[in-house]
Design brief:
With about 200 residues, the protein is an alpha+beta fold. Helix content is about 40%, strand content about 20%. The chain contains 8 helices and 7 strands, in the order H-H-H-E-E-E-E-H-E-H-E-H-E-H-H. The strands form 2 sheets. Strands 5-2-3-6-7 form a 5-stranded mixed beta sheet, with helices on both faces. It has a two-stranded antiparallel ribbon with strand order 1-4. Helix 4 (about 115-125) packs antiparallel against helix 5. Pfam families: GTP_cyclohydroI. Homopolymer. Keywords: GTP-binding, Hydrolase, Metal-binding, Nucleotide-binding, One-carbon metabolism, Zinc. InterPro entries: GTP-CH-I_C/QueF, GTP-CH-I_N, GTP_CycHdrlase_I, GTP_CycHdrlase_I_CS, GTP_CycHdrlase_I_dom.
Length: about 200
């Protein structure tokens, strides 16, 4: 997970809210509009506030998100799958939206996670500037390191607005990425079972 930024260093201090708002005004001018006109007067403040929500993942400690695990599982050791976790992210190349669903499974080894924790892990990494490939790997690695199960499987399907709104302008195209660790990586039958369970609506 070498692409994960955990915090800004002293050499790169975080800009102030006022500096962020001024940057938005500059972009509005560059786009050809007047940031002083009535409809845009509050836009810099709104954008700064929206960014603090959209990119909240930078301020979240993934270890705290994973937090408590449960050992009273009655001997259960089969697949745990949470599918259709909707998310919104932004591509790191154009800062345009990426929208899709994540499907995450793991094979327990004595401990399980609260189901909402899996969705929270997806949300933490989605709320950072991302590539889909990196986000897929980050989710798998975080659960693998935090829970230490027998294996983790992650499948993400998403539409990228950088393809739909600009450049090639192809709407409706979907990008699929997968990452497997442990028993999922080593066993093609487990991979197939995971994909079958994801697709079996």
């Amino acid at each position: 997970m070498d692409a994960i930024v955990t915090k800004l260093t002293a050499e790169a201090p975080r800009p102030t809210r006022e500096e962020a708002e001024q940057a938005v005004r500059t972009l509005l001018l560059w786009a050809g509009d007047d940031p002083e006109r009535e409809g845009l007067l509050d836009t810099p403040a709104r954008v700064a506030k929206a960014y603090s929500e959209l990119f909240a993942g930078y301020g979240t400690d993934i270890d705290e998100v994973l937090g408590r695990t449960f050992e009273e599982v009655g001997g259960y050791d089969d697949m745990v799958l949470v599918r259709d976790i909707s998310f919104f992210s932004h591509c790191e190349h154009h800062i345009l939206p990426v929208m899709g669903k994540a499907h995450v499974a793991y094979l327990p080894k004595g401990r399980v996670l609260g189901l909402s924790k899996i969705a929270r892990v997806v949300d933490v990494f989605a709320r950072r500037l991302q590539t889909q490939e990196n986000m897929t790997a980050q989710i798998a690695q975080a659960i693998d390191e935090g829970l230490q199960p027998r294996g983790v499987a992650v499948f993400i399907e998403a539409e990228h607005m950088c393809m739909a709104m600009r450049g090639i302008q192809k709407t409706g195209s979907t990008t699929l990425t997968t990452t497997f660790t442990g028993a999922f990586k080593d066993n093609a039958a487990e991979q197939a079972r995971f994909m079958s369970m994801v697709r079996n609506r």
